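Weekly modeling sync, notes
Attendees: S.R. (lead), two postdocs, one rotation student

Agenda item 3: backlog of single-chain predictions. S.R. asked that every request posted to the team notebook include the full sequence so nobody has to chase files. The rotation student volunteered to paste the first one in as an example of the format we agreed on. Action items at the bottom.

Example entry:
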Amino acid sequence: MNEHIRIRRAERLSSKGIYEVVRRDGEEELHRPIKSLLWSGVAAGILIAFSVLGEAVLRLNLPETKGRYLVENIGYSFGFLLVILGRMQLFTENTITTVLPLVKDRTRHCLIAVLRLWSVVLTANVAGAAIAAVFMVHSGAMDNDMLAVINDLSAHATGFPAGEAFVRAIPAGVLVASIVWMMPGQNGNEVLMIVLFTWLIAAGDFTHVIAGSVEMWVLVIQNMLTPWDAAMVFFLPVLAGNVMGGTAVFAMLAWGQVQAEVEPDPEHPQQGSGNPKAPEALG
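Predicted structure, as returned to the notebook:
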C-alpha cells in the first residue's frame, strides 16, 4: 500500500471536518420530505423499544448479584444500535445535526425548517413508541414475568420528580449528541461507541425522552400512570432536558470550537467557510 494512503487513513478527522460532515448531514435532513421524516420517525420510535426489551430480558435472566444492574443496562443499547446504525430519525440526534446549520446561517427560513423537522420527528417518535408499547402490553408476546419486569423498569424511568427528570435528561442529551459528533471519525468502531455511551445513559439513570416514551406509554396503557403525570412530570421535563443537553450545551460547545474557522473574519474575508472542502477531503 502506498505510504501516502496509509498516512491519510491514519489521520484523525479535525474538528472542522467533523463539523462539516454533521452540518451537511443536518442540511440534508432539513430538506427531506415530511412523509419520509414521518415514516423514519415512527420506525425509530418502534425500534427504540428494543432498548426496554433488551434491558428487561437481561434483568429477568441474570442472577440477583451486586453487579447485575451494570450488566443488564447493556440491553439498553440494543434499540439505539438499531436506530442509529439504521439511519432512522431520532429526535435527540436532531438536537445537534439540525442546529449546526441554524447557528451557521441564523436565518428565519432555517429556524422554521428546524422547528418543522423537530415537530414532525418528535411526534412520529412518540407515535412509534406508543405502537411498540401497545404491542408489548396487549399482543401476548410478553409473558407475565417479562411484562412485570418491563413495568418495573418503566415505573423507575418515569418515577422521578419533574425537576430531577429535567436535570437527569441533560447528560443524556449531551451523550446522544456526542455520539452524532463522533460517528464520522470512528472507522469501524461505531458499534462499540454506541454501546458504551448508551450504556452510560442507562447505568447513570439519565432520562431519554424517546426510549422513556415507550416506558411512559406502557404505564399509561395499563392505567398505572395518569396522562397528566406522563406529560407534565415525565415527558415535558425530559424533553426540555434532552434539548438543553444536546443543543444548548453540546451543539453550542461544538460550534464554539470551530466558529473562528468556518465564519469569515471581517478583516480577512477570504478566510472561513466560503469554499469549504468536501467532508472526505477534510482532516
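Discussion: group reviewed the output briefly. Confidence is low (pLDDT under 50) at residues 269-283.
Action items: rotation student to repeat for the remaining queue; S.R. to check formatting next week.
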